[in-house]
Amino acid sequence: METYSRRWFLGAAGATTLASAVGLTACGSSGGSGSSGTLTAFVYGDDAVKVQVKSVNRFNASAAAKKAGGKIKLEKVPGADYPAKLRTAMGSPNAPDIFFNWGGGSIKAYKDAGQLLDLTDILTSDSALKDGFLPSVISAGGLSGHNYGVPMRGMQPVILFYNKTLFAEHKLTAPTTWDQLLDINAKLKKAKITPFALGGKDIWPELMWLEYLTDRIGGPAVFDKIKNGDTSGWGDPAVLKAAQTVKQLIDDGAFGKGFSSVAYTNGGAPAVFAKGKAAMHLMGSWEYSTQLGKFPDFAKKDLGWCAFPTVEGGAGDIRNVVGNPTNYWSVNAHTGNKDAAIAFLRDSASKTYASELVANGDIPTTSNAEALLDKSPNPEFAKFQYQMVQQAPSFTLSWDQAVDPDVSTPMLTEINKLFVGQSTPEQFVSAVKGLK
Fold first, then answer.
1. Which end of the chain is more exposed for a tag (fewer CB within 10 A), N or C?
2. Transmembrane region positions (predicted)?
C-alpha cells in the first residue's frame, strides 16, 4: 500500500523544477518513445504496481491490442526518482507514450507545452470510458475544464476520523455542522482531552483544514480559480475566513500545544489519536490502514469516520470532498499509436481491473466498484469511502498537488507560518496572493 506516496511528489518535483519551460517546450514536437507497434508506459514503481503489470499483460494478449496494432511496455520507475525521470524523458526523443501522474499541477507544465492528448471528447464519446468512472474523479484530475487523464488507482479522500469509545463515554455524536464541532471541542477540553490530533511538523496535515474550510465556506469554485492559474482567487473572502477559523481553533487549543513538533510520517499523530489523547483526526483515508498496522485493536474497535461538517452560511455542500481523487494515466500528444493507447486505457475501467485494486486494499474509482467491496479488508469503511466520492458534487484535488509545483513549497511554508502563529490570517492571504 502506498500510504504516504502522495507526499513524495511535492519535494521531488519542486527540486527538479518540473515546470521549466525551456526543457518542456523544446520537446513539444517529440514523439513517444515507442514505435507504432510498442508503446512505453511510465508508472510509479511501488507495491501497488502489480495491478498495472497485470493490466499490461492482459492488454498485450487481447484482441484489442491486435486490432490497434500495438502493445504496451511498462517501465517501473522508483518513487523517489519518478518526477525527475519523467521530466527528463518528456524533454527528450524518448518520451513515454503513456504516463502515471496525479493530475492538476503535476501535469500542467506538460499541458502548457502541448505534450498531452486532450481526452475530453474521448471520455464523453467512448462508452467504456464515459460510463466507467465516477464523474467527480474524472473532473478532479483535469485542467481548465479539460480532461487529460484516466483514473488508474484507488481513491484517497480526506475524512474526519473520531474515537467512538471516547465519544460514547462523553455522550457525543459525530458533528454535521461547525457549531456542533465547536460544542464537541468545548466538552472534550473540559474533560482534559485534546479535540484533534495534528501532525504539524509535516505541514501537509495542516493543509487539509484550509482545504475543507475554504470549500465549506466558499464552495469549490474558489480553489478551482486558483488551480487554473488565477492567483486573485486567493483574495476570495472564503480564504480569509478559512484562515481566521483556523486561527480560532489554534487559539482555542483544538490541536493542543505541541502539534508543531508532532509528525504524521513517524507515527506520532496516529499514536496521539489511538491512545485517546486526542478524540479526532482529520486525515486521508490511509489513516485506517495506518491504524490497522500500528494499533490494530483501536482500528477494529474504536475508529469511527464521518464527513467534514458544514459551516453555517457557507456555500459548500457537506458532500464535497477534498484529497487525492486517484492517480491517472495520461497520453503523450505525439504518441505513435493513439488507438492502441486509448484501447489500453479502457482496461482501467474494467471489472477485472477494479477487482484487482480491491484485492490490493484500494477503493476503485470505477462506477462498477461498489458491488466488489465486500471483498475488501474492511467492507464497511470501503463502502463509506466509495459512497462519499460517488455522491460528491465536487472532489477538490489536494492543493499542493493541484497548483504548479514551484508554488507548492512556498504555499505550504505560508500555511505553516499561519498555524504556528508567525503570520496573521490577513498576512497569510497577502503572502499566498503573491505566489507565482
1. C
2. none
